[in-house]
Design goal:
The strands form two sheets. Strands 2-6-5-4-7 form a five-stranded antiparallel sheet, with helices on both faces. The protein is 24% helix and 31% strand. With 198 residues, the chain is α+β, with helices and mostly antiparallel strands.
Length: 198
């Protein structure tokens, strides 16, 4: 199965950010195809295809990472595109707040995956929330970033991280496989998440 580890915005924040962020770019001729807010997440590690045996070895390692990691206070701030200089393909919102702790958490998750012999993308981790994607011929323009460049959202707290299974297709969706509390010093982690269509 195709897996990734991510943190998600608290449910109460999603509607507000949808109104504040997506309203700023929706309807523009150069806007990307916007990601539905129910699929918003901040990826910590993309794991790719992982078989059940490796997943069963990975989950206790990630549980240990979560148990030793404190909750995070983050906020969305500014925006950009990938790539930064050539024709853009992805529009993203940046992350501010406990970014150092978020980077440490992502590195620990990636190390847990590597210890389980799962190959992870070792490119420099840039925490972000993907807002939309352009396809070839969409008339992509970095000008769409301008209304978001000075954006700063309200702080929100991240208390869990989730292992997701990615289902590809015309309408991709993400299925939570397991969820863990970020609770330094606590042994309460590793509880399986109920499968749900997101």
């Amino acid at each position: 199965m195709r897996l990734f580890v991510a943190v998600i915005l608290p449910a109460g924040e999603v509607q507000r950010y949808q109104q504040e962020l997506l309203a700023a770019v929706a309807g523009r001729d150069d806007a990307p195809r916007l990601i539905p807010p129910e699929r918003w997440h901040i990826t910590l590690a993309f794991l790719g295809e992982v078989d059940d045996a490796r997943r069963s070895r990975l989950e206790p390692r990630i549980a240990a990472v979560a148990a030793g990691s404190p909750p995070l206070t983050l906020r969305l701030a500014t925006a950009g595109t990938f790539p930064a200089r050539s024709t853009p393909r992805v529009l993203w919102a940046g992350v501010d707040g406990d970014v150092g702790a978020l980077l440490t958490l992502a590195a620990a998750v990636q190390s847990a995956a590597a210890a389980t012999r799962i190959r992870v993308d070792r490119r420099r981790f840039t925490p972000h929330l993907t807002l939309g994607r352009w396809r070839a011929g969409d008339g992509a323009s970095r000008g769409v970033v301008d209304p978001l460049s000075g954006y700063t959202g309200a702080p929100f707290e991240i208390r869990t991280m989730t292992l997701f299974r990615s289902h590809l297709g015309p309408k991709p969706w993400y299925e939570p496989v397991a969820r863990w509390r970020l609770d330094a010093g606590s042994s309460q982690s590793g509880a399986s998440a109920r499968s749900a269509r997101w």
